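Journal club prep, notes for RB
We'll compare a predicted complex against what the paper describes. Inputs for the protoporphyrin IX containing FE case:
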Amino acid sequence: TVFEAIIITTKRKSSKEFKQKFAIYDEGFEYGSQLPDLFLKGSYCYIVFFFFLLCFISQTLLQHLVTTITDKFLPNYGLLMLWASLANAIPITFWTIAFMMSNPITYRTAMEQIDAAMKKQGIKSLLTLEDLQQMPYVKWCILEAMRLRAPGAITRKVVQPIKLQNYIIPSGDLLMMSPYWAHRNPEYFPNPEEFRPERWEQADLVKNAFLEGFVAFGGGKYQCPGRWYAIMELHMFVALILYKYEFTLLDSLPKPVSFMPFYQCHLQHEQYLVWSFHPI
Ligand code: HEM
């Protein structure tokens, strides 16, 4: 329906119709936050499996969705896949390059690894897993940019009362956790405001383990199923774009917004900050 809504406005039909279509889309958007079970059963391995399968049968994930899902939420699933795969990956790419540019030593270290890996293989525009393994520093830069510019809040609805410290959070409330603030806990990230890719040396990335306290991809059953794919595509993209283009920073880095919603009313739960919301 969102696509219909866009088409309608470009045809200059009435804004009333646009509003109606938009209301339908908006109402259904929350269903877009749930992938069909088919994609999530067990673990995120299924989604990886599907990516491989789809490559094999030459269909994109969206084409596959369109041909296999027949319920009315199809546009929502499609929108989710478009949104989830781009909305975070694009800003993180921007921030990775911006942080690297504003730290000349970081930039030089990364470029040394990129140049060495590219020249050794004589590669111009293709990267293999082996090439990526020769540039771990670039991956650390991406994860460090993600730590500092992680998505604002991750939400869960309370389905049965839960005790947090001295509070009983009733069912129906929304619980929100902020990766932004979790990533500024000096216990897990010393000098948290500093862009220090080296801190990722401690993470066992070969075994797909992040640093403790890193929650940019959420957690539990509904954490981001695209996380390892995202890191790999960012790794490839950042390495290739830095190899092919020379960047110059024209302005100093913008500071993150000073106001983070609900900053004052948090509970400290284990290492995370958690908020609870009452529906009114
Ligand atoms: C840097 C890139 C990315 C970041 C930071 C990111 C982050 C997140 C976060 C925080 C969530 C919510 C997790 C939760 O509620 O616990 C999420 C959900 C999701 N992500 Fe990502 N993501 C990224 C890239 C991707 C990519 C490339 C894909 C697909 C190819 C993807 C697919 C999804 C999907 C489908 C969900 C919804 C899962 C569900 O509700 O069950 N993401 N992502």
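Talking point for the session: The longest strand covers residues 272-277.
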